[in-house]
Amino acid sequence: MTEGVPTRRLGRTDLAVSVLGFGAAPLGGVYRALSDAEADATVAAAYDAGLRYFDVAPFYGLGLAEHRLGHALRERRGDCVVSTKVGRLLRPVRGRAPESMYVDPLPFEVVYDYSYDGVMRSIEDSQQRTGLVDFDILFIHDVNRRWHGDAVDRRFDEVMADGYRALDELRRNGHVKAIGVGVNDNEILVRFAEAGRFDCFMLAGRYTLLDQSPLDQLFPLCEREGISIVSAAPFNSGILATGARPGAKFFYADAPPAILERTRQIEDVCERHGVPLAAAALQFALGHPVVASVAAGFSSPAEVETNVAMMRFHIPPAFWEELKAQGLVRKESPTANTA
């Protein structure tokens, strides 16, 4: 256990990840520019607070987040678990990078490549951007309908026929300790679990106070197969941190009326029990035994301090019982205080 932040074992591996993980997407400038100094200070604050799991991807800021996380972790790497992702190669572009949610990203564009050679090249590129010799976990990134549309089946076949072989080889040779898939789609993870031998999945925004759909098929399958879940985006892109205020974000867009209303109802229960909404959002997923870590995004030392406090906040069992009684979360959702 790291000081102040418990750890959990990842699948059947020997890795232990802090139950609160550091999602590095904001280091790439999600919705607002971030300076190098702010990025360094944020990672340092997370490490000093006891976080020992850090996740990044080439896509975040088109390489910028990897540069910044690597720089900040270089002297702290020894006792940290670090993951990055494969599937997107970055190619230089003239002028500004394509429009995205990243503000002032590096001048690159994405080329999808889930082949054996593409995976190996992606890892080498990530090593150079981060300045880190190795990674503990590699995730296949974003093989889902949101990014690939009707081509998602072709992408799935490509990675399982070729890219998966590269990851499995790296694991067998001891170059990485765990391999997985990172998406926001339950169905595709079920397909991956049935098609290969994975240690962990990163599931973004699909096991939260507003969505418990993985309970139907994915989580029971993961329990049987010994696959751990890293539950990312616990605030569903913002609304479960900010509350149901105007402009609140849900999956990177303005929250629809039904989500705003459901969030208001959850906030009412929070108020009755004296529980901050953010504390409930961060701790909810950890009630399920298949979840090893909740990975939240951080863009300032203040956010680190707040979220660590929210993770430690004592939530009475009666709070969870009322959410279930009102049908605001599913009754079969396991819940437990994690403070």
Brief account:
Its EC number is 1.1.1.122. With 339 residues, the chain is of the alpha/beta class. The protein has helices at residues 36-48, 64-73, 116-130, 145-148, 152-172, 186-195, 218-225, 239-242, 257-273, 277-284, 301-312, 317-325; strands at 7-9, 16-18, 20-23, 53-55, 81-86, 88-92, 108-112, 137-141, 178-183, 200-204, 228-232, 249-250, 253-254, 291-297.
Global outline: globular
Helix content: 25-40%
Q: CATH superfamily, called what?
A: NADP-dependent oxidoreductase domain
Major β-sheet strand ordering: 3-4-5-8-9-10-11-14
Low-confidence stretches: none
- Look at the structure and give the mean pLDDT: 95
Number of domains as seen in the coordinates: 1
- Using the CA coordinates, give the radius of gyration: 19 Å
Q: N- to C-terminal separation?
A: 14 Å
Reading the helices and strands in chain order gives: EEEHEHEEEHEHHEHEHEHEEHHEHH
Largest beta-sheet characterization: 8 strands, parallel, barrel
- Structural class estimated from helices and strands: alpha/beta
Q: What portion of the residues fall into strands of 2 or more residues? A: 15-25%
* Total beta strand runs: 14
